[in-house]
Write a structure and sequence with these properties.
Strand order of the largest sheet: 1-2-3-6-5
Number of strands: 7
Number of helices: 4
Structural class: alpha+beta
Helix content: 25-40%
Radius of gyration: 22 Å
Length: 130
């Protein structure tokens, strides 16, 4: 009887430990900067291409933008994606490195490498009260 009790207690502790332990969730991470506004992002089981939303790269600034993004996003940098839609089969998202308060589109604009997309400005404009 004592052995059965010990066995049931051990099993109960094991099950409760599995149920109460926090599940580890990993963030998406940058695998590659492909173009001035296109990133290859990966998570646990898939990779996908993400185009930076709201940024139109200034003509002639493509290589500077790539260099800037590579500096901001070293390989395996964890990022937070804020999806805003899709275009041509690519996810459009604002991408923010974890620990940063600004997304990459805003940083590109601040560094005069891009300008804000007009469609994005309209989509994020505050609603005016009548």
């Amino acid at each position: 009887m004592k052995r059965i009790f010990d066995y049931c207690l051990a099993l109960l502790l094991l099950i409760s430990g599995l149920l109460l332990s926090p599940v580890r969730v990993s963030a998406a991470e940058v695998l590659q900067v492909r173009e001035a506004d296109l990133l290859l992002i990966g998570d646990q089981n898939r990779t996908y291409s993400v185009r930076l939303a709201c940024a139109e790269i200034n003509p002639g600034q493509e290589q500077n933008s790539i260099d800037f993004l590579r500096k901001q996003l070293p390989r395996r940098q964890k990022v937070n994606l804020m999806p805003m839609g899709s275009k041509d089969g690519l996810l459009l998202a604002r991408v923010r490195p974890l620990g940063s308060s600004q997304d990459l589109s805003s940083l590109l604009v601040e560094n005069q490498l891009a300008k804000l997309n007009q469609g994005c400005i309209k989509a994020t404009k505050p609603i005016e009260k009548a």
